[in-house]
Design brief:
Elements: E1 8-14, H1 30-45, H2 50-56, E2 58-59, E3 62-69, E4 78-87, E5 92-100, E6 106-114, E7 117-118, H3 130-135
Antiparallel strand pairs: 1-4, 2-7, 3-6, 4-5, 5-6
Length: about 140
Amino acid sequence: MNCNTKCCATIEYTTSFHDTDAMGVVWHGNYLKFFEKAREALFQKYHYGYRDMMESGYLWPVVDARIKYSASTIAEQTLQITAELAEYEHRIKINYKIVDVKTGKKTTSGYTIQVAVSAINQEMSFVTPQILLKKFGLVE
């Protein structure tokens, strides 16, 4: 995944001792937190952070997630986490890639799928709201 593409954001995160499990490796459940940090950066890049979503009248819950672990990570390891908007019709799919900054080796990849839900009546939208498309520059 190359963040030179449109609708992409990359962050760096240095793992902490509290991210690890009893075996000294980053606990598998923390990767969803890492994905979230990159996804938040992606949305903020396009001025559609969580407060903006609420103000626009939509919530975007994650309804599906997949993680593929390619290599372990440990405490005090700096990771580069990239989030890229891959699909945006009817739902949004964001792909993720995590690499070790020092070696460039991919450690993890995955995706999340989110749907638009009305903040007022909690009904799911079967089309992507125009506000997201406009914020990301996908429509005029």
